Every structure is written in C-alpha cells, then in structure tokens.
Amino acid sequence: MSTAPRREVLEKLTPVLTKRWLSPEAWRLDVYEQLDGYAALRKALAAHPDDLIQLIKDSGLRGRGGAGFPTGLKWGFIPQNDGKPHYLVVNADEGEPGTCKDLPLMTHDPHSLIEGVIIASYAIRANRAYIYIRGEAVNAARRLRNAVDEAYKAGYLGTNILGSGLDLDVVVHSGAGAYICGEETALLDSLEGFRGQPRLRPPFPATHGLYASPTVVNNVGTIASVPYIVLGGAAWWKTMGTEKSAGPMIYSLSGRINNPGQYECGLGVTLRELIELAGGMQPGHNLKFWTPGGSSTPLLTAEHMDVPLDFESVAAAGSILGTTATQLFSDQDCPVYATYKWLEFYHHESCGKCTPCREGNFWMVRVYRRILSGEGTFEDLDTLLDTCDNILGRSFCGLGDGATSPVTSSLQYFKQDYLDYIEGRTPPKLSAKQLVGAH
Amino acid sequence: MTVQYSDDLRAKAKEIVARYPADRSRSALLPLLHLVQAEEGHVSPAGVEFCAEVLGITKAQVGAVATFYTMYKRRPTADWLVSVCTNTMCNVLGGQEVYDRLTEHLGVGHEETTADGSITLEHAECLAACDYGPVMTVNYEFFDKVDADGAVGLVEKLRGGERPMPSRGARLCTLKEMAVQLAGFADDRPEGVADGVAGEPTLRGVRLAQEHGISVPGFDPETPIKAQEAK
C-alpha cells in the first residue's frame, strides 16, 4: 500500500524545472510565454555576457549530466576575442541506465531548453548551437524541433534576436543509437559525422571542441536551469541544495517503490526521504541495493539510506551522484544478475577504441554467464576484480570506469550472493547452454 | 551499382547539408543515413554510395559510420520495429519475459523480421523510461508497463493492420516515415506534435508539490543581474 509522505518530507520538493510539466500545452510557444517564458532571455540580453558567466558562477550551478563540473567555470574557459567561432552543444543523449529526466523535460517544456541555449550562447559568444538528442527519443525530438521552428518564427532565433544584435542558429541533431555518444568528446566526433569515439584530453573542448573550436558541452538539465537563475538570481538558486551542491535536481526513481517517477528536490535529499515521497517500498519488498545515479555509479545498500544525495556526500560514501537516476532493487532481486545485465550493456555499448574496455567487458560478461549458470569458480571472483583493475582508469573515457562500478560494488557488498551461485545454494539463473568459452 | 534516387531525396539531402557550416558538411552524415534508411528501410550499399556522393567522401568512410550505430539497420526491416528493453531495471520488472515470449510467439530473434515481413524484433538497452518499466517501443514510441500477454496482443494488432495508440507520444507511423523525422524533418502530421500527454510517473513529484501547496519561496524575477566593475 502506498503511504502518504509526512509534511517535513514533502517540503524537500523543489518544483522549479518540472513546474511547467503540469501545464499540458507548455510545449507551445504561446503557453510557454504566458508562464514566464522568454522573460529570462530579455533580461539576459540586457546584461553583459561576462556578467551572465559570473552569475552562473555565483549560483554554484554544476553540470547535471553526471560529472557535476561547475558550469560557470566551464563557460569561463572559453577564450574570448580569439577570432574563432564558438559553439554550444547540448548533450541530450540521455541513456545512462536508470536515467529518465531529460526526455520528459524536452517533451513537456522544450522552450525552457531553447531559452537556456540562447542565453548560454550569448554568454559564451556562440552563433551556432547544436542539440544532440538521442536517436530513440523521437517524441522529445519532435517537440524540440517544433519549438525551434516556433522560436525562429517569433524572432528568438535567427539574426539580431530581439534587436540585441545576437545571431544564433540552433540545429536539433538526432543520434543513431550509441550510448557512448553521451560522452562529450565522443558526442563531438559523432556530431562531426564520425563514429562516436572519445578523444584524448587535453586539449579540452573549451579550446578544441567541435570543429577544433572553443565549445561548451552541457547537459539538458544544466542549460534548462539557466533561465531560472537569470530570473531568480544566484542567491535564490542557492536557497536550494547544499553549499557545494546548489540548486534543485530531478531525481528519477524507478524499481521497487510504490510510485516510481520524477521527483525534483534540493540536492542533498536522502534516499529514505525519496522513498517516502514515492509512497514507500512495494509490499513484500525490502530495499537491498540501489544506484544513486545510474548503473555507472557504484551500488549502495540499505545502510546508505541517510546519505545526503549531493556530489560530496555520495562521493564520501564511496559512490558517485551521477545523473541522480535512483534505481531501487529489493531482496527479491539478485545483485549478481543485475550486474550481469549491466555488463551486457557495457559490452554492447563499448565503442571498441580502448582495449581494456572492449576486451574487459567482453570477458566479464562471459564470466558472469558462467557464474549465473552454476559453473562459476572461486577464481572467477578474483578474475572479475583483476579485470576491473585493468579497466578502471585505463581507457580514454568513463564508459570503462562505469562498467567496473556495479562489479566491484556488488562484490564488495554482496559477495555471498556470488558464492551462493558458485557453491550451488542458488539455482542457476541461466542455462549452461549459453556458456561459450569462458574458461 | 547505379544509385537512382529521386530529385526529392536529393533536395532533402541538400537541405540537411545546409544545416551545418559550409566546410563541415560531414556533420550531415548521421541525418543523411537516417534519410537513406527512410527510402529502403535499411542502409543498403546504394544508400551508402548516395551519402558518399553527397558528401564527397568514400564509401568506406560512410560504411564505417553506418555500422557503428545500432539504429542503422543493415538488413531490410519491417514497417514495425518492436524493441523491448532488457536492461537491468526493465529486465527484473518483467522485460525479459516480454522479450522471450515475443521471440517465441513471432519465431524470430534479435534484429530478425517475421516471415510475413510485418515485424522486426530487437531487444534494446535502457530506453530512458525506467519509471514506466517494463517498457517496449514500436518505431521508438513507448508502450509502458507491458507484460508478456499485452506484448503479444500488441504485435497481433500490428500484424492485423491496426495502429494501437502508444502510451505516450504520437500515434504510430511506419519506420520509414520515422526515419524522415530522424533525419531532422518536421513530423508532417498536424496531430503528431500535439499527441501525447505526460504520464503519471513523470508528473508524480510536481503533482505532489502542487497538491500540498509546496513551492520554492523567494523567487523574484526582477532580481537584478550584478554588473561587474568595468575591466
């Protein structure tokens, strides 16, 4: 039975980016304009671009795509008066397992992203912006393209925007099904018409990004936050969240709770509070393990329910805040099988550029199949940890690192579950027929 | 092989290339591949040749890109691409049973097309709708909280010529029609953009806040933007 949250927990909710979702037609320009739409743009265009960068720095806004890099600092890295074109690229390639916050935002409030794009482009002096949206996200892309068309017709995009002298073109660019393109340099390669494979850094996109020009790559949630900061100010923004992790964040809750969904709270809310907001655990399910921010963030357990879900506290607990994709699993779910399915994912999505990630994930999948088929050995557990050691930090991008997260964390907390397969206490979950040359 | 593509397609290709800086036309490759897929339902050797010709790059360069991305299909596909999420969350909530039942019912495996040519099946990785899990999509439009029986019923409707309405998003169009949209062209159905309302999980948090009168205090849109000292 779903339980009602207490008042003090309800007050953790901070409806900011999600607020317009309640208006079913907020994706239309006229409705958006009635709901404060493009007011921030007018205000921003009256300010100096450097003052906007400073405003974002003062707000403490950090990237919402997983890494949490300070947004104002990133914008400030763009060299000015360098004679080169500057680009803004929005990373809308949402695909981290568990994450489902950007697609609803673009579907139900696409103009807020476009308004943020215009303000950010003005601040970094870019005249072209690209929104790289995940290919499969067809509904969000449809609304976004429609919104871009509306914005052009209304003079919010194109030349001399609202008489300010700013020229900006925005292209919505659909991907074609590759998780790796959520990695910013792979995204840039993909946007340039190549296979999406990460680049060696340095040089960083701030100086050598799209077409080797200064580029800011920001997540959807980051850019969509900008209009609210421009309107409400940095001090107001910092009334939400914690000192070092300021502002609201959309927590995506899925799994064994009564009411899965999107819950926007100030950074630093705890899982215990989120579960209460989500009506409690489903009957017969006790929390066993969960991801704080997608499958690339090490699993946490019921011991960690009171960890504040902000960048610092989750790191201190041995995981990563990531995309705040909170997937909850219960005592009826098997952490070994869950990790296996994630490994299948990393194996499929590894772009193949770096040997440790390409080969390591390939073999780890096979070791998992063997364990889950009841054919595992004690040595397999060492092999898994050894493989992780050889992947972590040894690839160009974070995909390989992310793949090791569920492996090492599940072995840390749930070694017994592995042993139960190996020693025959848990019946095999996969058939031995699926075993291929793992030995 | 002679590439015979219509003037309309060539006009569309030109439009795609024009979206990118003049000396950066290769950026048009992904949308161009979607465009050729819209013609044939997959990226054929002729499609690869067309992209190479439009961009002035080699077929090998195009082929290397086309084979990298999951959404470009290398074999002919049906009008209906049925994708079942089998990533961890949907999987434990029942997605694996949905996929297994569909393979059994349709008699095809991953990326295979039924004998009657009506349906191509695939298992998919996380589709970014975990709060609606387990999910499946038809031509990338969502059907939420599916179970095995429901999934079989859905594919039977598709085979019977019906177009069941997705849980969210627009009414169905064929995979080729969808590929035109993926190439960056507007959905030409007036109802396409308007279709679909936010599902309950999407709105859960914000609705809870609304019901209990919770908002973030102190928001003043007139808050001045601090001007720095003149440098």
From TrEMBL, chain A:
<keyword id="KW-0411">Iron-sulfur</keyword>
<dbReference type="Pfam" id="PF01512">
    <property type="entry name" value="Complex1_51K"/>
</dbReference>
<comment type="function">
    <text>NDH-1 shuttles electrons from NADH, via FMN and iron-sulfur (Fe-S) centers, to quinones in the respiratory chain.</text>
</comment>
<keyword id="KW-0285">Flavoprotein</keyword>
<feature type="domain" description="NADH-ubiquinone oxidoreductase 51kDa subunit iron-sulphur binding">
    <location>
        <begin position="336"/>
        <end position="381"/>
    </location>
</feature>
<dbReference type="InterPro" id="IPR019575">
    <property type="entry name" value="Nuop51_4Fe4S-bd"/>
</dbReference>
<keyword id="KW-0520">NAD</keyword>
<keyword id="KW-0874">Quinone</keyword>
<dbReference type="InterPro" id="IPR054765">
    <property type="entry name" value="SLBB_dom"/>
</dbReference>
<dbReference type="InterPro" id="IPR011538">
    <property type="entry name" value="Nuo51_FMN-bd"/>
</dbReference>
<keyword id="KW-1278">Translocase</keyword>
<dbReference type="Pfam" id="PF22461">
    <property type="entry name" value="SLBB_2"/>
</dbReference>
<keyword id="KW-0408">Iron</keyword>
<dbReference type="InterPro" id="IPR001949">
    <property type="entry name" value="NADH-UbQ_OxRdtase_51kDa_CS"/>
</dbReference>
<dbReference type="InterPro" id="IPR037207">
    <property type="entry name" value="Nuop51_4Fe4S-bd_sf"/>
</dbReference>
<dbReference type="Pfam" id="PF10589">
    <property type="entry name" value="NADH_4Fe-4S"/>
</dbReference>
<keyword id="KW-0288">FMN</keyword>
<dbReference type="InterPro" id="IPR050837">
    <property type="entry name" value="ComplexI_51kDa_subunit"/>
</dbReference>
<dbReference type="InterPro" id="IPR037225">
    <property type="entry name" value="Nuo51_FMN-bd_sf"/>
</dbReference>
<protein>
    <recommendedName>
        <fullName>NADH-quinone oxidoreductase subunit F</fullName>
        <ecNumber>7.1.1.-</ecNumber>
    </recommendedName>
</protein>
<keyword id="KW-0004">4Fe-4S</keyword>
<dbReference type="InterPro" id="IPR011537">
    <property type="entry name" value="NADH-UbQ_OxRdtase_suF"/>
</dbReference>
UniProtKB/TrEMBL annotation, chain B:
<keyword id="KW-0001">2Fe-2S</keyword>
<dbReference type="Pfam" id="PF01257">
    <property type="entry name" value="2Fe-2S_thioredx"/>
</dbReference>
<protein>
    <recommendedName>
        <fullName>NADH-quinone oxidoreductase subunit E</fullName>
    </recommendedName>
</protein>
<comment type="similarity">
    <text>Belongs to the complex I 24 kDa subunit family.</text>
</comment>
<dbReference type="InterPro" id="IPR042128">
    <property type="entry name" value="NuoE_dom"/>
</dbReference>
<dbReference type="InterPro" id="IPR041921">
    <property type="entry name" value="NuoE_N"/>
</dbReference>
<dbReference type="InterPro" id="IPR036249">
    <property type="entry name" value="Thioredoxin-like_sf"/>
</dbReference>
<keyword id="KW-0479">Metal-binding</keyword>
<keyword id="KW-0408">Iron</keyword>
<dbReference type="InterPro" id="IPR002023">
    <property type="entry name" value="NuoE-like"/>
</dbReference>
<keyword id="KW-0411">Iron-sulfur</keyword>
